[in-house]
Amino acid sequence: MLWDALTLQLGYNATLVTLGATMLGVGAGATGTYLYLGKRALVSDAISHATLPGVVLGFMVMVALGGEGRFLPGLMLGAALSAGLGLLAVTGLTTRTRLHEDAAIGAVLSVFFGFGVVLLTVVQVMDAGRQAGLETFLLGATAGMLRDEALTIAAGGAVVLALVRLLHRPMILVAFDPEYAVGQGMRLARVDLAMMGLALAITVTGLKVVGLVLIVALLIIPPVAARFWSERAGHVVMIAGAIGGVAGYLGAAVSATAPDLPTGPLIVLAAFALFVLSLLMAPGRGVLAAALRHLRFQRRVHLRQGLLALAAGQPVYEPLTLRLMRRAGL
């Protein structure tokens, strides 16, 4: 059954969900690269946790208006408004007080998430809330996802990816050297707002699949893994998108074969497996490559010292040096 899921043979709806999760992973990996390179990774955590009150309030408003409370675009709109408010709170606390950004993020994250949990508890005792399934937004779930929901998630990931391509140069400049970007005539506030807006968009888009608790992992793990494979920023963005896409694909496929398992953790575990693979196997910065370089350097040093000892007529006692010299026919 797992092979059927990996080869997209579990049915039309399961295929759409898997492809939607893949597109989400590509967009998240590419977007998270700018946050990672700009040392703004914690901002995505604040954004994700700030979405919970918006999701619950969106559900309550739609039910009060006589609509379908689980209408995904309505929930995403509420999440976006709530996350935007949280982002403004972080920015305000950072710019208008003496708080550092990490302290502001911690305060906003905990307050918004706590408020969301209270609202979620209130919804659970409502007649309409008992069947809402809003708890799936915490860890993500693709079981029972409708065709329109999968298409919405895929379209959101594609739009974010297109905007990343359009805004790549200014966001890379601001992430690496804000002062140089200002010298080039760029407005830091606007570029920073665009970067945070993309992080907000991908967070809101991925709530149904990955969940608000773990969406930050899909934003950060792929670029961290991609950094082992390249020194060029453009290549890191593309590799991070590919890693995020593969993680989304594998996690959604496994989740399709085991509906009781939450999708978000499976996607994150797949991303972590790719990170470990990158950590060990990357040719430039991987652990194994570094160990091989050290071993080759050690052998060159021992052989050089042995040759110097021979030239000076001195005895060689080091076993490794003797072994290497014998192999070299000396």
Summarize this structure as a short list of keywords or feature phrases:
mainly alpha; 2 domains; 330 residues
Task: Please specify the SSE layout and strand pairing.
Layout: H1 2-6, H2 12-37, H3 41-49, H4 51-64, H5 72-96, H6 101-124, H7 136-139, H8 147-166, H9 168-176, H10 178-183, H11 188-205, H12 215-226, H13 233-257, H14 263-281, H15 287-311, H16 319-327
Radius of gyration: 25 Å
Tell me how many strands there are: 0
> What percent of residues are in strands?
under 5%
Give the CA-CA distance, first to last residue. 60 Å
Assign an overall shape.
elongated
Topology order in helix (H) and strand (E) letters: HHHHHHHHHHHHHHHH
Portion of residues within helices: over 70%
Summing up helix and strand content along with how strands pair, one would put the structural category as mainly alpha
| Uncertain segments | none
Mean pLDDT: 84
Task: Spell out the CATH superfamily of the largest domain.
Answer: ABC transporter involved in vitamin B12 uptake, BtuC
CATH C-level of the largest domain: Mainly Alpha
Number of domains: 2
Per CATH, what is the topology of the largest domain? ABC transporter involved in vitamin B12 uptake, BtuC
Count, helices: 16
CATH architecture of the largest domain: Orthogonal Bundle
Largest sheet, if any?
none
